[in-house]
Amino acid sequence: MKGYRKIWTNTVPRLNKIMASPPEKPIGSIARAAEIGRILMRHGAKNLAGALGFIPSSNNVIDPREFRPAAVVAFLRDIGPVGIKLGQLLATRSDLFTEHWITAFSTLHDQVSPVRFADIEPVLASSWGEDWRNDFAQFDEKPLASASIAQTYSAELRDGSKVIVKVRRPGTAARMEADVRLLVRLAEIAEARSPDIARYRPVEFLRTFGRNLAWEMDLAAESRACERIGAYLDTIGVRTPAIHWELTGLRVNVQERLYGRPASSLGSPSGDPRVAAFAKSYANAVLRMIILNGEFHGDPHPGNVFLIGEQDVGFIDFGSVGTLTKARRDEIVRLVLAIAGEKTSDVANVLLAWAGEPKVDRDALAVDLDQLIGEFRGTVLSGIEFSQIFSRVFDLLRDYRLVLPPDLAILLRTLLTAEGVVRSLAPDYNIAEDTRPIMTELFAERFSLASARSGLKKLRGQLLGLSASLPDILATANSIAKSGYVPVQLDPLSIEQLAGLRNERQSLKGPLAAALIVASALLVDQSWLLAGGALVIAGVVLIRKS
After folding, report:
1. How many CB atoms lie within 10 A of CB 518?
2. Each residue of 254-276: b (16+ CB within 10 Å) or e?
3. Residue 297's pLDDT band (boundaries 50, 70, 90)?
4. Predicted TM-score (pTM) of this structure
5. How many CB atoms within 10 Å of residue 415?
6. Residue 198 — very low, low, confident or very high, per pLDDT cuts 50/70/90?
7. Cα(190)–Cα(188) distance, rounded to whole angstroms?
8. How many other β-carbons are positioned within 10 Å of the β-carbon of residue 505?
């Protein structure tokens, strides 16, 4: 595995101490609900506050047209860290919001005033013990950065290693968990009272948002993601910080400090070939993480990416991570193939499946999809840019009010962020040039001999299972062919029960045929041959009955 793990003699006791850190005290919802109600009123959302039950009101209908971007952004900002993070996520949802909404959400920044070190030190003592300073040659108590979840500090270990210490702000977890619970409850009310809002599935969205936020607050989970993704990035020459696991836990992590120039400091394009090479390596890393690795850095903004040395790329801060399952990546490949192959129905099938198969005007959707595909007509597959495809697709989704799954929303944010970084550093760089070899690798993987072997291996297993039973099946089929009768074994009790339901002279062939048909349906996923055999026998029974 990339990096190193230094094992100290007190590692096990320290890990036990980290694992034993007490959870934060939960926060009740009643007082917080009243506070959010006052925030709504302060921003002129009296009708919404009444419809959500914050104030007495006879109007329980929520009208989305009452929402204004400036008021919603002010409301999210006043909620605090959860509202700010939610707004940042909404700023990536071009499939849901028009440009003026996206612009408004983009004004929410996750920069907050730092917590005093006197309030941070108890977290360190709880995680490492009262003598925690003995492990450091130097610890700068002035934070390098302060965000809504954690603050970071510069330090040096006793062995001379330069490190970054990331500490979760005290009380953060309890407050965020309470706010997410309350927002989910409000979304449930809104869904029940507004069909227009329900169409966008806000409850599902907020629950996913809450799970991702909980994951982001687990600093050990962030470190594990850094190692997993870092192991892949290392194969293409991209650096990530090594983790000091003996000092890392739920509320604190310690990682190698990478020295270099953050992309945010590289400034406007200057024609420097090193910057252009860095932009290309950065784009290549982002695309490969998404397309080939399936797990990727979810927020590769310029402050999280470094130019190390002449042109090497380094990624830090894996607090936000996106994951695409193989099935999801296959869907994306099918979408790209369908667009390149001008198969409108296939494009529609993928988009509607993502949106949960809502009722839409398929004819109108087909016309719009054909127009979209026309924009890429004549373009070779390797020359189609992912970000360009998704930008147009998301416009269409918004027009038809089709909602994307949350994992694809993170993908969108990552693509748009990466595109912005590359455009700012190397405007003339064509990201399609990087996409071509990656797509070639992807299709080679999908249609490789190894992939074919995997499918054949699965089929071989089914055939081997069938061959074991084949002599008995053939013998039974031969007997049926010669005699015209199907041997059936039923216990006496079952026969008595059937006789009680029907006249004693009624044939058992009808129930038997039905049972065989049901058996055929159950067997079809396991073996088409067995299923077909059962169906043929059922047909024979029915013919004999007539």
Report:
1. 12
2. bbbbbebebbeebeebeeeeebb
3. very high
4. 0.67
5. 24
6. confident
7. 5
8. 6
Q: How many CA atoms lie within 13 A of 40 on its CB side?
A: 21
In Å, how far are 109, 183, 367 from 176, measured between CA atoms?
17, 10, 44
Category of 109 on φ-ψ map: left (φ > 0), alpha (ψ -120 to 50) or beta: beta
Q: Taking Cα atoms as reference points, which of 308, 311, 166, 301 lies closest to residue 243?
A: 166
- The tokens for 418 are 């990466």
d(CA 99, CA 108): 15
Rounded-to-10 torsion of CA 212, 150, 283, 285: -80
CA distance 47 to 493: 67
Residue 146's beta-bridge partner residues? Answer: 151
Describe the strand order of the beta sheet including 261-262 as a list of residue ranges. 261-262, 305-308, 312-315
Residues paired with 243 in a beta bridge = 255
Contact 472, 480 (CB under 8 A): no
Residue 171 vs residues 22, 177, 222, 248: alpha-carbon distances, Å: 12, 10, 19, 19
Q: Which amino acid is at 34?
A: A
Residue type present at position 391: S
DSSP strand pairing (261-262 vs 305-308):
antiparallel
Element (H, E) at 314: strand 312-315
Closest Cα to residue 254, out of 157, 321, 171, 170? 157
The helix/strand/coil state of 155 is: strand
How far apart are alpha carbons 321 and 109 in whole angstroms?
Answer: 19
Residue 23 pLDDT exceeds 70: no
Which residues are CB-contacts of 451 (< 8 A; sequence separation ≥ 6)?
445
343-369 tens-digit pLDDT: 888 888 888 888 888 888 888 888 888
Q: Which stretch of DSSP H or E encloses residue 42?
A: helix 30-42
Residue 522 CB coordination number (10 Å)? 12
Which pLDDT score is estimated for 314? 96
Q: Name, in order, each residue with C-beta under 8 angstroms of 522's C-beta and a sequence gap of 6 or more.
A: none
Q: Identify the CA nearest to 397 among candidates 341, 428, 356, 440.
A: 356
